[in-house]
């Protein structure tokens, strides 16, 4: 049973993610990260934060697949294709004869190897990869002088939500929608002021492990 926290011992601030009572175990999970390359100083810190927390929760390095796209607008398509590709791959009964080549570099589902082909002696017969348990979409949008920001924020957030509801695979919303550069830096733990802020990428890594674990239980 969940214990309620003693209100008198709570932090003075009411904002932010409360620590979970449960330490979710990521050791059997497979997680994808897709990141956009706009504003890459901030992006790099966010991706590093997410990866650090995935590993801390036991996700194996070989089960973390990282992809990149030009900008945040491209994130939904990448997430959608990666989820679809990983399910195709996982449901295939044909062993991967390609010596461990992953399709993640191309965002295209792998071509099924020939069923009649005989693997070279000693060739590794890798089992099909398991589907992704969660995908983390990471982007940094910083408001400019035009309406571009509003359109991208709106369409990307709606599309990412739709993908997770349509596929049942959690899509972690790792898109910063910042009004200023300083806001973005602070949310990546790179603040230029007295406080460096907090790296939200870490929260996204934890959220991926938590949601991936929940979805398996809820299946
Ligand atoms: C064009 C654009 C602009 C102005 N700003 C950002 C941004 O702050 N963050 C981001 O991730 N992407 C930006 N982009 C690029 C678009 O997301 C997209 O890559 C292009 O419009 C091509 O579809």
UniProtKB/TrEMBL annotation:
<dbReference type="GO" id="GO:0009231">
    <property type="term" value="P:riboflavin biosynthetic process"/>
</dbReference>
<dbReference type="InterPro" id="IPR034964">
    <property type="entry name" value="LS"/>
</dbReference>
<protein>
    <recommendedName>
        <fullName>6,7-dimethyl-8-ribityllumazine synthase</fullName>
        <ecNumber>2.5.1.78</ecNumber>
    </recommendedName>
</protein>
<dbReference type="Pfam" id="PF00885">
    <property type="entry name" value="DMRL_synthase"/>
</dbReference>
<dbReference type="GO" id="GO:0005758">
    <property type="term" value="C:mitochondrial intermembrane space"/>
</dbReference>
<dbReference type="GO" id="GO:0009349">
    <property type="term" value="C:riboflavin synthase complex"/>
</dbReference>
<dbReference type="InterPro" id="IPR036467">
    <property type="entry name" value="LS/RS_sf"/>
</dbReference>
<dbReference type="GO" id="GO:0000906">
    <property type="term" value="F:6,7-dimethyl-8-ribityllumazine synthase activity"/>
</dbReference>
<keyword id="KW-0808">Transferase</keyword>
<keyword id="KW-0686">Riboflavin biosynthesis</keyword>
<comment type="pathway">
    <text>Cofactor biosynthesis; riboflavin biosynthesis; riboflavin from 2-hydroxy-3-oxobutyl phosphate and 5-amino-6-(D-ribitylamino)uracil: step 1/2.</text>
</comment>
<dbReference type="InterPro" id="IPR002180">
    <property type="entry name" value="LS/RS"/>
</dbReference>
<comment type="similarity">
    <text>Belongs to the DMRL synthase family.</text>
</comment>
<comment type="function">
    <text>Catalyzes the formation of 6,7-dimethyl-8-ribityllumazine by condensation of 5-amino-6-(D-ribitylamino)uracil with 3,4-dihydroxy-2-butanone 4-phosphate. This is the penultimate step in the biosynthesis of riboflavin.</text>
</comment>
């Amino acid at each position: 049973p969940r214990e309620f926290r003693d209100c008198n011992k709570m932090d003075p601030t009411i904002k932010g993610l409360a620590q979970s009572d449960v330490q979710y175990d990521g050791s059997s999970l497979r997680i994808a990260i897709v990141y956009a390359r706009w504003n890459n100083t901030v992006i790099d810190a966010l991706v590093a934060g997410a990866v650090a927390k995935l590993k801390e929760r036991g996700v194996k390095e070989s089960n973390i697949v990282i992809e990149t796209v030009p900008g945040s607008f491209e994130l939904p398509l990448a997430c959608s294709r990666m989820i679809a590709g990983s399910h195709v791959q996982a449901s295939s009964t044909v062993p991967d004869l390609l010596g461990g080549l992953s399709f993640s570099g191309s965002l295209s589902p792998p071509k099924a190897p020939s069923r009649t082909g005989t693997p070279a002696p000693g060739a590794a017969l890798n089992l099909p990869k398991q589907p992704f348990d969660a995908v983390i979409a990471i982007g940094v949008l910083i408001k400019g002088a035009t309406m571009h920001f509003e359109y991208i924020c709106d369409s990307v957030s709606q599309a990412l939500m739709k993908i997770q509801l349509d596929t049942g695979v959690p899509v972690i919303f790792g898109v910063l929608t910042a009004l200023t550069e300083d806001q973005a830096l602070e949310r990546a733990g790179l603040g230029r002021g007295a406080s460096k802020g907090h790296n939200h990428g870490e929260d996204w890594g934890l959220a991926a492990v938590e949601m991936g674990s929940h979805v398996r239980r809820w299946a």
